[in-house]
Design a protein that fits this description.
Length: 232
Amino acid sequence: MKCIGIIGAMEVEVSRLKEKMENVKITKKASMDFYEGVLLGKKVIVVRSGIGKVNAAVCTQILADVFHVDAIINTGIAGSLNKEINIGDIVLATDVVHHDMDAQGFGYPKGQIPQMQEFSFPADAELRSLAEKICNEVNPDVQVFQGRIASGDQFISDKKVKDDIVHNFGGFAVEMEGAAIGQAAYLNGIPFLIIRAISDKADGSATMDYPEFEAAAAAHSLNLTLEFVRRV
Ligand code: ADE
């Protein structure tokens, strides 16, 4: 693999990666700073996309067109959709779906993009299984799961909204970028991996502790990303 693009939506998700990079050149595009350089011996482009699906898709397309990356990793946090998946645990997306895409009025199932064949976008199976193996080594205190991740331009903090997403999509985690990155990577024929550490239960519980959980979850995701880059 010659060059890996690494996207985090927030600074907390990418700052330590940037600190560890060598020979850094920064290119600004679409108001995003693309850090091009070497991380643990691998050529990488690290970028904070900003939050939400439009930022994530624009960022992914730039990684494809300008930097010609061979694979894309998205590292970050997510809300859990499954009671077995606890705060701090890791979810690796098997596939990603847009939970807020809704053309049911035209007879499409919720989540289906009209006039596209795909309902969800599959993450690369080899990248996923390597990530699972590494996660068990670097984060032995947390569980790692593989399952569907649902994305939308909504922070989910209401039990009813969460239950609807689970009912419609059967996902393991919910966040705000993965499906946009997955779709853009898929359209460009680039393998992708989505690594998400759970920061909350997506139901409004424990909001007081959210900043603490967010920092711990981002650290788990980062530990895995660093070792993954070293070994891939
Ligand atoms: N990212 C982290 N937690 C989330 C949630 N509950 N909803 C959407 N994105 C998230």
